[in-house]
Design a protein that fits this description.
187 residues, 7 strands, three-stranded antiparallel beta sheet, 2 domains, four-stranded antiparallel beta sheet
Amino acid sequence: MSGEARYLAVDERIVCQVRRHPAVLFRPFMEAFGAIVAAAFLGTLLTPSDGSDVIDTILGAIAIFFMARFAWRGWEWNVAHIVVTDRRIFEVSGLISRRVASMPLTKVTDMTYHRSLLGRLLGYGDLRVESPGQKQAVEKIAFLPKPDDFYRTVTSLVMAKSPTHRETVADRVDSDDPTGPLPRVIV
């Protein structure tokens, strides 16, 4: 098996699968860009004629560190996925060691959906998934692309799994009816 299918239970099917919005990379990109600009500016200011100074080497190493950090975050973003199945939500992340955080849909009691102004402009949002009594592995999913669709999908699945929202055979049939769900025949 390849991809997230290796983490599925028997007869479990993937309903939707997303990668976080690229906006999650904005901060590491700006830090790397700022480090490059600052290193170039300080290098020109402190050692304008001599390019072999120790200061230039240190500034270059700092800029390379921030560039490597941005590349690492980009790689992490590329391999991390949020998967919603017909039974649970799970997030697969990690480059060196793989982490799979999971929460059954039957445990979901509340969801808080939030879109900031920047999130509305760029097309991402956050979803907080809550369950009673204990901390879950999946609690907040930030930077969701197309968050409206994701929220509707998860809400539909949670409502389908919830016994209080699902119509049961007992709800449709009178409790004193001995025939059960079979149609009545009156002669």
